[in-house]
Amino acid sequence: VAGKKENEGNLKGLFDFVDATDTFGASTWEQSEAESQRLAFGFALNKAKVVSEDIDILLAGDLMNQCVGSSYGLAEFGIPFLGLYGACSTSAEGLALSSMLCQTHKKIAVVTSSHFCSAERQFRLPLEYGGQRTPTSQWTVTGAGAFILEANNEVNQPKIVDCMIGKIVDAGIKDIGNMGSAMAPAVVEILTEYFRQTNTKPQDYDAIFTGDLGEEGSKILIEIMAVNGFDLSKKHTDCGLIIYKKEEQDVHAGGSGCGCGAISLASYILPKISRGEFCNILYIATGALMSPATVAQKLSIPAIAHLVHIVRG
Amino acid sequence: VAGKKENEGNLKGLFDFVDATDTFGASTWEQSEAESQRLAFGFALNKAKVVSEDIDILLAGDLMNQCVGSSYGLAEFGIPFLGLYGACSTSAEGLALSSMLCQTHKKIAVVTSSHFCSAERQFRLPLEYGGQRTPTSQWTVTGAGAFILEANNEVNQPKIVDCMIGKIVDAGIKDIGNMGSAMAPAVVEILTEYFRQTNTKPQDYDAIFTGDLGEEGSKILIEIMAVNGFDLSKKHTDCGLIIYKKEEQDVHAGGSGCGCGAISLASYILPKISRGEFCNILYIATGALMSPATVAQKLSIPAIAHLVHIVRG
């Protein structure tokens, strides 16, 4: 499920539902975001041909204070609910956790979202203020993604074969107009460790997607990984750079938000796996774990990245 | 780990660490709360005679926006980290999830906290305002609890034998000065369903603890459960009524917050199980999933309750 601007970018036409008003019929932006989660999960249930009662556990979270997008948007489904907070890493956090829980449960669902308008007024400035944005800043994606995982995978469909839970990495970055640089070190840490533990290298994968590093964070990632001996330049793509058309859409360093990775994965990456265009990918979503209060207190921004390894299986 | 007021109540002397200034050495309340999590987890590691590297996954969350108590307080441990948001249900959410993850991992840790001063200014009014509190309001507990779970339980120590993940229940309550009444229906739902599925009744347990229903919520719980055919009156205790001395400490309807259940469980309930004073209990922590924004938008308060069944095993 996506907003107007998202459907004017590179993923135009790939979404199950687009609201050209970005309101999703609600009267406040927070409720719009909640409604986007409700819609996304509804579509996921329909496409998987299951009903609420078939889902053992629903994992969800978003960027809004107290994750109200999930609690208000998903209440009506009546499914055992575990709230997550991983900032923009929520999609990968949920998928990683689901893949573990699938060992003891039949069906697990993951839902996450972000909304430009709810995020701006909560984390930055009210929209009415019309503040100028710095070139390294990113544009919060309006969109919600929902995923349903089951223990027994269908043939030739996306399958999580392993995952790695990230550690909190604080590289000392304090500029909230440059989230990419705060989050890139978390990807460096998890990717380097993952390549080491699995004894693999970038060339072993069809593609390596990060969630929302944007232009700045992606450059930093590729640069540091090269120093660590891994050439990501031909394999890495960031979902924040996939969604929008850089030249036309004025999003500065690219997209961001829980929805950024989630809707790219749901609408673009996973279908490519189903069609056999990708057979072996890494998906790493990153989150910046600060709050407006810690920013005001001049603390640096802790970041996290979680990795899921998805194959066509 | 607890604050001054908590150590003047019924659990006086049971905590590993008490800071009589409630600051935990930090210069802002948000950082005080983060520090309380760092201390609590440090004590848990020491008492369990393990080091950070022994912990496979750390699950944590708190009440502050973007759960910054956990991200700032626990970053230095360098453990794979999964952020949770379950409001005051976080302790039970974390324990339930840990008990599932223990089937595939060796050691899992859960940490949560709340702090009166960070919660008041975020959810209600700045402390300096000195607003009057309604009789049904509760007092957010200053404290952090940490738990370490492993697959192979020591003999005669607390053991989670099963758990139930709760569903979001919205009973239409809009009064944020009366959280007990918003959360009690979530306990009714999960307890009734748990008794049904396990074919047990209150008399089968040594005690049934809820996290922070307070006086108002506890009365509602007992009343509705009686209508459902279950007499909780002799078995139910609420952690919000355990911590403070009602007559002396002016906390109105009792304690609340993620820390309320967590420090009661860690300092009082689990030691009683270790000593054999309890052999079979239910612990149900409840959370109210609204935000100040949804309250301002006059939405009702969705609530959740998660249940863990703990025996001496």
Structure commentary:
2 copies of one chain form a homodimer. Chain A has 313 residues and is α/β, with parallel strands linked by helices. The first copy, chain A, has helices at 29-47, 68-74, 90-101, 116-123, 179-198, 214-227, 239-242, 246-249, 258-274, 292-296, and strands at 2-3, 18-19, 57-62, 81-83, 107-114, 139-140, 143-150, 158-164, 207-210, 236-238, 255-256, 280-288, 303-312. In chain A, the strands form 4 sheets. Chain A has a 5-stranded mixed sheet with strand order 8-13-12-9-10. Chain A is globular and about 45 Å long. Chain A starts with a strand and ends with a strand. Chains A and B meet through helix 2, strand 4, helix 3 and helix 10 of A and helix 2, strand 4, helix 3, strand 9 and helix 10 of B.
